[in-house]
Amino acid sequence: MTETQKAYIAVLVQMVIIGLSFMFVKIALMDGDTLNMLAHRFTFAFSAASIPVLFGLVKLSMTKKGARVLIPLSLLYPLLFFTFQTLGLANTSSSEAGIVFATTPVLVAIFAAVLLKEKVTFWQAFFIGLSVSGVIYIIIMKGNGGFTFNVKGIIYTLLSAFSTAIYTVLVRRYRYEFSNFTLMYFMMMIGAIVFNLLAFGTHALNGSWNLYFGPLFEMRYLLSVLYLGVLSTFITQFLSIYAVARVEAARIGVFNNLSSVVTVLAGVIFLKETLYSYHLIGALIIVIGIVGSNYFAKK
User: Fold this and answer.
1) Element (H, E) at 244
2) Residue 298: C-alpha distances to residues 50, 75, 135, 175 (Å)
3) pTM of this structure
4) Could you tell me the CA-to-CA distances from 70 to 122, 190, 239 in Å, in that order?
5) Residue 170 per-residue DSSP state
6) C-alpha torsion sign, points 189, 182, 236, 240
């Protein structure tokens, strides 16, 4: 199996985990709020990442240049990404946020062309756009959540998409400056520190420490944040870094839309949601877009 094939398998597994994560976010929010969930999520992610380090199974390594770019990368993801995503969802509908965030593969292709000089063929660009249209089609046909056209919310969501797109491109640009695990480990650490400081500060001001610790005693919440922290944060970021380091950013970026297909299937299978014809049509468009964009990528 070639490194490219391994990268594609890694990103496919990543999209399945992310697609399922939306279901676990819904479950977790039944017992906790967004800030606590982020703090717990990154605490579990960093704890999981620390185990192989503490037992000497993995060594952290990076160059001096890698150390200089580590903080900007960590600012883009997880800090700016999750902050703007949360603000976006707080100020606009989930439908609008989904449509705006679906543009991420397009942004990745643009930044990759500008910063990495990666060439995007006409047909590759066409199929990237086709994949995005599949996501938008599902969201519009679904029709729930409403369309508020809140400019502030749309801008926040767009900034979230910008953050993850630039992060994806920069990881590929600086892939030789640190090991995959090192980058992922420090991202988890910074996320855990910042989100827990925010949560602690909020509860200290409000005298509401029970709201931080209370949800952890609810089994459905605990299992949900364990999934979100260990699998959907720790494992997916490792897989993402692994894939982007081996395949062009634009070819990997378009796979982001596959998570929408997994989310729909998870809702049908686990939450007993109804599967409509537009789900199947949108999913087919997304898959055709992903396959086509990679097939027509400049070799």
Assistant:
1) helix 236-244
2) 39, 31, 25, 21
3) 0.87
4) 34, 10, 18
5) H
6) positive
